[in-house]
Amino acid sequence: MRAINSVRDQSYTNKEIIVVNDGSSDNTQHTLEQQSDIILINNKTNLRLQKSLNIGCNAARGKYIARLDDHDQWIDEEKLAKQVAFLEKNPDVAIVGTAAKSGERKIMNPLSDKDIRRQMLFRCPFCHITIVMRKEAFASVGGYDETLTYSEDWALWMKLGQKYQLANLSDVTTVISEETGLTNINYVSQYTTNRTLIKSYKNIYSGFLRAMTYHWSVRQFLRMFKLGGTMHKRFIRIYDYFFLRMQ
């Protein structure tokens, strides 16, 4: 309930809380059915993240959509209020994210539309659980790509960037839980997906050749040195640092 309570604690009150229970076999459904302020959607079977995201977003009745995973939390009670105010003042912007933290590490992303576009093919320029986006914009690009196993959020940002402006705020609003469950095989597969994805947008965003070099070299490194979990994240942070300085 930590994630849900952090949504409840938001100062922005004009909101609905939708929970998609993706076929869990524990007592999640029973627990959430007791919460009168929650709109609960129960998938009879596990439909995977991508489809569940679309189910939840399509069920939303508001002008804006935010999302949060069950193991993370919002720590800034003004988070939604800040992002909604930003979107109201900037009607050409479809999505606004924020900074986050994982343990003691602060996770920052580019702030301006120009800087976000410069990094779009190189790395995902938003922290997924921090974003607020316009539902109209989400619907106009067809939502999350359900054919993807990885990087469905990044693919959505790329689609939105074709039609709208993009932005991040510098505020740290969200805590990401430290998870180390992905295996080396998962990471290698993800970078393979990423290379396929960026090829589709090579004429939309700049830096295609550099981005392809980056994703190819990371994939090759992970195939040779089977890093997973925390070691993988440390390697990527170091690698990203040097590639970003080259831009």
TrEMBL record:
Taxonomic source organism: Candidatus Abawacabacteria bacterium RBG_16_42_10
Keyword terms: Glycosyltransferase, Transferase
Similarity section: Belongs to the glycosyltransferase 2 family.
Protein name: Glycosyltransferase 2-like domain-containing protein
GO molecular function, one term: glycosyltransferase activity
Organism superkingdom: Bacteria
Domain Glycosyltransferase 2-like: 2-123
InterPro entries hit by this protein: Glyco_trans_2-like (IPR001173), Glycosyltransf_2 (IPR050834), Nucleotide-diphossugar_trans (IPR029044)
